[in-house]
Structures are given as C-alpha cells and as structure tokens.
Design brief:
Layout (H helix, E strand, L loop, with lengths): L7 H10 L23 H10 L12 E2 L5 E2 L6 H14 L4 H12 L4 E3 L7 H10 L8 H10 L3 E3 L3 H4 L5
Parallel strand pairs: 3-4
Antiparallel strand pairs: 1-2
C-alpha cells in the first residue's frame, strides 16, 4: 500500500483525482496526521523543546528505526537517538518494510508479535516477511499454512492469539 500525507485540501484533491479501488481506496485514516512528513516539522520542534535530553539513554534492547538502522545497547549515542526520534522519525518517511526486513534478517526471531492497538499491522508484517522470503515464505497460501502449523506472527489484538504470548 501507499500512504499519502497532506493537508486537508491536498488529500481531498487527491481523492477526487484517482479512481476508487475495491470500494475502499483511497481511504482516509481516522485520527491520523501527516506523520513522517515535513508537515510535522512544528511537532518535531515542539517535542525537541519540551522533551529533555535526559529522557534518552542507552537502549536495553536493540532498536530498529525507520531507515533500517539498528541502535545497539552499549554503543548508542543518546543525543543521536534523541535527534533521530524527535527529528527524522517525525518529519521523514518511515520505511516499515525495511525495518521489519532488518528485524527478520538481523535477529531471526522465532515469532513476530503485533502489540496493537488492534491487529491492523499483521497483514503488513506478513506481506513483508513473504516478500523477504523469510524462513522460506513465498506466498500468502504458504504463510497461512505456516500460521496453522507453527505461527510466526501473533497479534495481541486477537484474543485467540494473545494467549500464546501473554496471560
């Protein structure tokens, strides 16, 4: 999917200029702003002025950012992490596919957990794992079969799946 950001007038113009697909696209996400675009520069500036430097420290676990960079415990500059978090991450595109691909390849997890809210990111994670060929996944049918046999993706937003990872 393509996520497009803009002001209200720009989004309305776009929606009027493109054909409607599957009776649902283009879709406006409720309560969403132009995250990860230059339109959020005032938010980034405000965050930088309100959130103190001492709120940022060495991560306890590796963090993967929207560029696919890994912020490692013990070797992360907290000032650089703050600058990225309250700057680039707010105002620049976030490459979710790249971040998930790096997580899969760098850390080889046994299981991906979608924390929520809800389970809307499950499809995007599944598609990314298939596109990356992770653990031999090559198509939707193969992914679904794997999920039935030995799940690689669990959503906390699904009661039936939540029990696998939480009480």
């Amino acid at each position: 999917m393509l996520v497009l950001a803009g002001n209200d007038a720009g989004l309305q113009a776009f929606a009027g200029a493109v054909p409607r697909l599957q009776d649902r696209f283009p879709m406006r996400l409720a309560n969403h702003a132009a995250f990860h675009t230059p339109l959020q520069a005032p938010v980034a500036t405000r965050g930088q002025s309100l959130l103190a430097s001492d709120l940022f420290r060495q991560p306890g676990l590796p963090l993967i950012d929207g560029r696919g960079a890994v912020w490692w415990p013990g070797s992360t500059d907290p000032a650089a992490l703050r600058a990225y978090t309250l700057g680039h991450q707010v105002t620049e595109p976030y490459d979710f596919t790249h971040a998930v691909t790096i997580a899969a390849r760098e850390f080889a997890p046994d299981l991906f957990i979608i924390t929520g809210p809800g389970d809307t990111m499950g499809g995007a994670v599944a598609q990314t794992l298939i596109a990356a060929g992770w653990r031999g996944l090559s198509d939707k049918a193969g992914f679904q079969a794997r999920q039935e046999e030995d799940p690689v993706l669990v959503s906390m937003g699904r009661m039936a799946q939540r029990g696998r990872v939480a009480e």
